[in-house]
C-alpha cells in the first residue's frame, strides 16, 4: 500500500465497510468514516512535511492514514441519545491493519511502523493532559516515530468538521514540544540500559533515568509467533542444547485439543518452567504468545525469578505460513488461525530485556 493508491483500494471489504459506518455528529459532522478517511488523505497530501518526506516515510504515513479508523465498523455503537462512540478502535485497528498489510505483503519493519501509528494515532490530541504523559510518550516512541505521529494526527483533525479544531491543533503542538524535551521526537526514548528500560515499564514508581542494577541470574528465551511461522526451527538452529517448555508438546502429552480450554496446558507449562527457574537453569518457553495479554504473565513469572528475558518473535509471509501450517504434524485448524490473527500483537521493546525480530 503506497502513496496515491486510495482509488485502487475501493473494492476491499474493509474499505467498503467504512461507507456504512456512522460517526459522532459533534466530532465528525462531515459524515461517515469513508468520507472522513478521504478528507484525511487530502489533508495529508497537502502537508509540506508529508511532501518533503522520503518515499518510505510517505508510504508509512499514507498507509496509516488509510487504515487509522479501519476498526470503527466493528467498534462503533450508536447511543440512545444519538451520540456515536467507537471505543477501542485505535488498539483494535492496529491488530486489524497488521493482518491486512501482512496479507498484502508489506515489509515487516514498515508495516509495524504503520501499526504503531494506528495504535497511538489519537494520543497527540490529549497526551499533554495525562498524568502519565512521560511514561506514555516513552512507550509510544518504541513503536512509532512521534514526529510522524504528529503529522498523522494533524491530518486526522483537519480531515473532519468539528468545533474543537484549534484546541486540538494546540495540543498537537504541545505534544511536539513535550516529546522534544523528552528526547523522543525523532528517535526512541533513551534508557541507561536494557535492564533500566525493562524495569521502568514494570514498575510505575521507577524514575525514567534510573540506572537499575542488573540482578538477573539466568536467561530465558520466550518465543512468539503464529503456528507454522518457524519457532521450532529457530530453536533447533540457535539453541539446540537448551531444554524447551513447549505448549504444543504438552497439549499432545495431556491430550488437549488446540480448540479446547488451554488452562490445564498453561498451568502444566508454568510448573515445568518453575522447576528450571528454581535451579537457575536457562530454558526456552515455546508458545504462540501472540498478544501482550498472553505474554505479560509469562514474562512476569520469569522476572520474578530474576531471569533475563529474551523475547524472540518469528514471522513468515502469509503464503508460506499457511503452507507450513498445513505441512505440520499437528495442523492448526483454519478457524483457530483466524482467531489468532485477530489477536496478533507483535512484541515491542518495552516487554522484555531484549526483543529479537526474525521476520521473512
What is the succession of H and E elements? Answer: HHHHHEEHHHHHHHEHEHHEHEHHE
Please tally the helical runs, counting DSSP H or I stretches of 4 or more residues: 18
CATH topology description of the largest domain: Hypothetical protein af1432
CATH architecture of the largest domain: Orthogonal Bundle
Assign the structural class, choosing from mainly alpha, mainly beta, alpha/beta, alpha+beta, or little secondary structure. Answer: alpha/beta
Query: What percentage of amino acids are in beta strands?
Result: 5-15%
Q: What is the CATH top level name of the largest domain? A: Mainly Alpha
Average pLDDT reading: 93
Helix content: 40-55%
Low-confidence stretches: none
Shape estimate: globular
Entry keywords:
Hypothetical protein af1432, 2 domains, 18 helices, globular, alpha/beta, 7 strands, 360 residues
Structure description:
This protein is of the alpha/beta class and 360 residues long. 52% of the residues lie in helices and 9% in strands. It contains 18 helices and seven strands. The chain has helices spanning 13-19, 33-46, 48-51, 55-67, 72-75, 89-104, 108-119, 123-126, 133-141, 146-158, 165-182, 194-202, 231-238, 247-254, 263-278, 292-304, 318-327, 334-341; strands at 77-78, 84-85, 218-224, 244-246, 283-286, 307-315, 354-359. It has a five-stranded parallel beta sheet, sandwiched between helices. The protein has a two-stranded antiparallel ribbon with strand order 1-2. Helix 2 packs across helix 10 (146-158) and helix 4 (55-67) crosses helix 7 (108-119). The chain is globular.
Amino acid at each position: 500500500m503506497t502513496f496515491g493508491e486510495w482509488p485502487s483500494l475501493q473494492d476491499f471489504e474493509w474499505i467498503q465497510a467504512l461507507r456504512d459506518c456512522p460517526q459522532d455528529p459533534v466530532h465528525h459532522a462531515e459524515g461517515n468514516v469513508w468520507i472522513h478517511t478521504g478528507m484525511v488523505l487530502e489533508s495529508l497530501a497537502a502537508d509540506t512535511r508529508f511532501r518533503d518526506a522520503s518515499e518510505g516515510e510517505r508510504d508509512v504515513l499514507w498507509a496509516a492514514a488509510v487504515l487509522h479508523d479501519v476498526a470503527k465498523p466493528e467498534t462503533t455503537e450508536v447511543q440512545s441519545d444519538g451520540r456515536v462512540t467507537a471505543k477501542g478502535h485505535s488498539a483494535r485497528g492496529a491488530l486489524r491493519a497488521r493482518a491486512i498489510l501482512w496479507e498484502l505483503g508489506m515489509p515487516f519493519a514498515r508495516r509495524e511502523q504503520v501499526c504503531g501509528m494506528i495504535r497511538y494515532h489519537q494520543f497527540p490530541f490529549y497526551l499533554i493532559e495525562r498524568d502519565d504523559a512521560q511514561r506514555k510518550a516513552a512507550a509510544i516512541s518504541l513503536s512509532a516515530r512521534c514526529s510522524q505521529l504528529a503529522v498523522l494526527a494533524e491530518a486526522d483533525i483537519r480531515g473532519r468538521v468539528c468545533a474543537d479544531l484549534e484546541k486540538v491543533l494546540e495540543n498537537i503542538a504541545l505534544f511536539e514540544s513535550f516529546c522534544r524535551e523528552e528526547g523522543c521526537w525523532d528517535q526512541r526514548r533513551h534508557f541507561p540500559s536494557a535492564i533500566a528500560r525493562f524495569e521502568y515499564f514494570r514498575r510505575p514508581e521507577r524514575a525514567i533515568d534510573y540506572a537499575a542494577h542488573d540482578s538477573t541470574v539466568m536467561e530465558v528465551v520466550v518465543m512468539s509467533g503464529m503456528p507454522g511461522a518457524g519457532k521450532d526451527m529457530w530453536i533447533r538452529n540457535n539453541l539446540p542444547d537448551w531444554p524447551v517448555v513447549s505448549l504444543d508438546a504438552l497439549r499432545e502429552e495431556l491430550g488437549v485439543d488446540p480448540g479446547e480450554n488451554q488452562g490445564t496446558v498453561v498451568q502444566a507449562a508454568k510448573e515445568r518452567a518453575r522447576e528450571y527457574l528454581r535451579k537457575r537453569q536457562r530454558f526456552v518457553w515455546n508458545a504462540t504468545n501472540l498478544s501482550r495479554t498472553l505474554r505479560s504473565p509469562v514474562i512476569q513469572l520469569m522476572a520474578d525469578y530474576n531471569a533475563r528475558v529474551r523475547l524472540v518473535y518469528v514471522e513468515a509471509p502469509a503464503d508460506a505460513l499457511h503452507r507450513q501450517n498445513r505441512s505440520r504434524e499437528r495442523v492448526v485448524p483454519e478457524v483457530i488461525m483466524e482467531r489468532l490473527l485477530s489477536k496478533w500483537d507483535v512484541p515491542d521493546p518495552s516487554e522484555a530485556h531484549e526483543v529479537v525480530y526474525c521476520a521473512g
